[in-house]
Amino acid sequence: MFRERFWWSLILSIPVVIFSPMVAHLLGYPLPEFPGSTWVPPVLDTIIFVYGGTPFLKGGWKEVKSRQPGMMLLIAMAITVAFVASWVTTLGLGGFDLDFWWELALLVTIMLLGHWLEMRALGGASSALDALAALLPDEAEKVIDGTTRTVDISELVVGDVVLVRAGARVPADGTIIDGAAEFDEGMITGESRPVFRDTGDKVVAGTVATDNTVRVRVEATGGDTALAGIQRMVADAQESSSRAQALADRAAALLFWFALISALITAVVWTTIGSPDDAVVRTVTVLVIACPHALGLAIPLVIAISTERAAKSGVLIKDRMALERMRTIDVVLFDKTGTLTEGAHAVTGVAATVGVTEGELLALAAAAEADSEHPVARAIVAAAAAHPEASRRQIRATGFSAASGRGVRATVDGAEILVGGPNMLREFNLTTPAELTDTTSAWTGRGAGVLHIVRDGQIIGAVAVEDKIRPESRAAVKALQDRGVKVAMITGDAQQVAHAVGQDLGIDEVFAEVLPQDKDTKVTQLQERGLSVAMVGDGVNDAPALARAEVGIAIGAGTDVAMESAGVVLASDDPRAILSMIELSQASYRKMIQNLIWASGYNILSVPLAAGVLASSGILLPPAAAAVLMSLSTIVVALNAQLLRRIDLDPAHLAPTSPKEEHTTPAPASTAVH
User: Fold this and answer.
1) Cβ atoms within 10 Å of 3's Cβ, excluding its own
2) Are 463 and 453 a contacting pair, CB within 8 Å?
């Protein structure tokens, strides 16, 4: 809307300016004359006032009714006074010389431009609540008399039984009554590994059965589901964080009262000294120039250039207040999985028994896991492919079978190979060999998943599988702490996993085993301690916390919900981009303040001069001179904002990583990054 009104107002403003006697005099060109030429500015400006000025007039009226004067009321007051005064002059009423037609046209046009730039910088996001709802399937397979029938999820009621196939999402909260499967609950709990759910266990709507088909009895639908609860939290948190008032509006509110009081004093003083005509001219001039073009562009220009610079550095700013708040952040709260870590499993340790090499062990495990789609299986296959010896062994498996929650079985080179965790060992009454105990205990102690490889009934080795820390995370944490910003981590993972990562990175505070509603609560607790919080996350479980924090920052590789709930989205998965955001926030805020000082300072000086405080000394600011100075003020503000393009926002420069960190790969336990 602002864009369309801007372009039409700009087109209509061109002839208004060309036919302005003052502009023609200043630029030294003959004023175009033809029958009716004097009516070009009044007619076109009336169209501009009605069409282009309507948003400001409506906004000003709303501010009057809410008793919260701001930018809209300041603009509405200036353009209304200019419009009325110019028509009075054009019609020859009272003998006043108050021709503001060209100034009115530019004032409306530039204010429309400023608001268009601002809206473009802010807008474009769809609803986070819609993104949450998209996690639910549209249909469910309802079990009726032993057969299944596809129904809309809105038709499900408590007590219904639904069939959830491998790879499908659970349509409603419920309990498994038949079957067992591993569920990807990362979008709800943030847990990095699939969770095994057996008969009698509860499952949550929106989670995914990764390997088997199960039957689920529905226990909650619609607004009673856990996902719906997260939706409500996101809505509440978004509302609570949207009440902040923009910096320019605060300045406009102060300027409104300054202009209004100055105009009243001007009218009273000039009338008292016996110059009612001067009282009208001076008062009108004060009210018109009280709305500087520069103030209308001071913040929008900075925001527009900042968002452009940020986008080139992989930072998408969706909320202008996030840009302002980031410089005041006391603590950055990182979600662990997919943010500080890679969010994908990797083999970080290999231990083989005597007589078996690491390459042979990995080759056998990878062959057995080759037909599995489980994330852990893919990690083992990838580790074997990267290992010099294992990658040379071209062996294949036959007779593959998987047992949910236990492991896989296959025949490799004529031997039966089993790969699995503790449940598999218990099932086959196997005991970890003494030569592996110290190594596997160390892995377990730091929270790694331990898988044993069994050949013909004998354990021949083990591998550690973990969600590996990003090489950039350590540099990001250190750079933030060097700037005096605390770093905290929050995760749904187990205590030992979370504290191992926190200790490795040197994080100040760790929150582990945190459920979605508690993530939101943890942000609130930090705020109650007097800390300004920036939350960084990538999952649905992070959405309420992202919305609640002073600044919500979503990793671009994360879910739509996280991105819609956040005020800032990082296009990359590099946590060092947080430093780019802080740098940009500080630089942008400096430019905002500088522009506001210039724009408001112009008014503080020009309004008294226009009012005639120095008239006794022969110094009087005529309307034409005030208009010219106003335009110069706008140019200065625009040029100052352009200086933002010179700041360096490259994360690699702001938080460089060491060569060792950049080339870290999964390694045996003694050298593993975990």
Assistant:
1) 14
2) yes
User: Tell me: the pLDDT tens digits for 89-148?
Assistant: 888 786 666 677 877 788 788 778 867 765 664 444 334 556 656 677 888 999 998 888
Cα(first)–Cα(last) distance of the chain, in Å? 52
C-alpha dihedral sign at 82, 87, 90, 92: negative
> Sheet harboring 407-412: ordered strands across?
341-352, 458-469, 449-455, 415-420, 407-412, 397-403
Instruction: Tell me the pTM.
Output: 0.59
Q: Provide the residue type at 109 as one letter.
A: T
Q: Which residue has the higher pLDDT, 672 or 147?
A: 147
Six token digits for residue 31: 């004023």
Q: Is the pLDDT of residue 1 over 80?
A: yes
Rounded to an integer, what distance in angstroms lies between the CA atom of residue 242 and that of residue 144? 47
Phi, psi dihedrals of residue 645, rounded to the nearest 5°: -70, -10
pLDDT at 22: 72
The alpha carbon of residue 130 and the mean position of all alpha carbons in its chain are separated, in whole angstroms, by: 16
Secondary structure of the chain: what % helix, strand, coil (to 5)? 55, 20, 25
CA distances to 77, 267, 388, 598 from 261, in Å:
13, 10, 81, 21
What single-letter amino acid sits at 425? L
- What region, left, alpha or beta, does residue 274 occupy, with left being phi > 0 and alpha being psi -120 to 50 degrees? left
Q: Which of 245-249, 436-440, 451-455 has the weakest average pLDDT?
A: 245-249
Which one is catalytic: 319, 335, 467, 573?
335
Closest by CA position to 535, among listed 551, 515, 511 = 551
Could you read off the pLDDT of 573-627 as tens digits, one per residue? 788 888 888 888 888 888 888 887 887 777 777 778 777 777 777 776 665 566 5
Answer yes or no: 224 catalytic.
no
Residues 6+ apart with CB under 8 A from 30: 24
Rounded CA gap, 610 and 289, in Å? 8
SS3 127: coil
